[in-house]
Specification:
Number of strands: 5
Helix content: 25-40%
Structural class: alpha+beta
Distance between the termini: 34 Å
Number of helices: 4
Radius of gyration: 18 Å
Order of helices and strands: EEHHEEHEH
Length: 133
């Protein structure tokens, strides 16, 4: 399952700097291992940070954080990619391994852009009518 919760652009300077780094798009990646993958890491405990980093970087991305988790998901990744296409390709490649029963990506919006969106929403004078009105 690929889940892109927000569309559009959330591009900002990588790492929040203005040193001329490429614009990157930030994502929250949440995954649930399938039973075969869970059994494998129990049978042969292993550090999954290296393979995850390699996969993210192969699509021009940068992995910032990788955590195992309790709850609905077994793990969480914070990563950035050059664009939505690279992120989608990463997601497809990760899913193609067959190691996950659930894999979701959510676009993250930096707070400065969220504030700008709030101001834009406030300033638009158009009155939206619901379809049932």
């Amino acid at each position: 399952m690929i889940d892109y919760r927000l569309g559009g652009s959330n591009v900002r300077r990588a790492g929040g700097t203005s040193r001329g780094e490429e614009d990157m798009v930030w994502f929250l990646v949440r995954f649930q291992l399938n039973s075969a993958s869970a059994k494998s890491i129990i049978t042969s405990p292993q550090d999954r940070l290296g393979p995850a980093t390699t996969l993210v970087e192969s699509f021009g991305g940068r992995l910032h954080d990788y955590f195992f988790a309790f709850g609905d998901f077994d793990g969480v990744i914070i990563a950035e990619f050059p664009d939505h296409k690279a992120a989608a390709a990463f997601s497809l490649r990760a899913n193609a391994t067959g190691g996950f029963s659930r894999f979701e990506m959510t676009v993250l919006i930096p707070t400065t852009e969220a504030e700008a969106a709030m101001k834009q929403a406030r300033d638009i004078k158009l009155v939206y009518r619901a379809p049932n009105e």
